[in-house]
Amino acid sequence: MISTDWIFAIPLTWHLGNHWLRFCYHHMSSHIGDEYIVRFDAPVGDYSRDAADFTAFHKVSPGLGVYGGGSWAFNVHPKGSGRLLARAGVQAESSRPSGATVPYAAADVQWDQNNDWEPRLNMQIGIRLPDYAARDHCDWRSSFSPANHHRANSAMRMRGTSRWGSPSTLN
After folding, report:
1. What is the C-alpha to C-alpha distance for residues 95 and 63, in angstroms, rounded to an integer?
2. Rounded to whole angstroms, how far apart are CA atoms 167 and 152?
3. Can you tell me the distance from the alpha carbon of 41 to that of 4, in angstroms, rounded to the nearest whole number?
4. pLDDT grade, residue 159 (50/70/90)?
5. Which residue, 32, 53, 83, 161, is most buried by CB atoms nearer than 10 A?
6. 49, exposed or middle or buried, with CB in 10 Å at 0-12, 13-18, 19+?
């Protein structure tokens, strides 16, 4: 195994019409595998954090929303890691769904104390299935997002990474 990354989260979301507030506990950890350490004589660089997040979302118009928030990590490893993170973003989606799907695009900027507050940009394009399971405020998203930056929250900190991800979320 080269490495493993884990995220576990418990979000609590309060919907206020077209807006919402979310408080979230999350645990993130990243571990380099023994095979990688032996093969490349790499230093052990395990990373973990337990954090509390707060995010607020405001729907500006039917197809446009903005959000902002922050995170405070109350338990970090290695011990000298930064504890604060700020983020802001924008999400645009089609006001004319094509069939049962809604195409969307999003941009997220994070300022992380681990990266000396240097901004990181993440962009996504994808589709959303609104009112998944016929429940209000519940939808399914699938997206692609290129990443080409130094990963501060990973055991693989030796160089930048490039990858395509395909996360799916159920809100």
Report:
1. 5
2. 19
3. 18
4. very low
5. 32
6. buried
Q: Which of 59, 116, 118, 44 is nearest to 93 (CA)?
A: 59
Which pLDDT does position 41 carry in this prediction? 74
User: From residue 31, how far is each of 12, 37, 51, 115 by CA, in Å?
Assistant: 28, 11, 18, 19
Residue 3: alpha-carbon gap to chain centroid: 19
Question: What are the residues whose beta carbons fall under 8 Å from the beta carbon of 85, sequence distance 6 or more?
Answer: 51, 70, 71, 73, 110, 111, 112, 113
**Cβ atoms of residues 148 and 120 within 8 Å:** no
Residues in the chain: 171
As a whole number of angstroms, the distance between CA 164 and CA 161 comes to 10
pTM of the predicted model as reported, rounded to 2 decimal places: 0.69
Q: Give the model's pLDDT for residue 142.
A: 64
* φ and ψ at residue 160, rounded to 5 degrees: -70, 160
- Specify the DSSP element, H or E, that contains 139: none
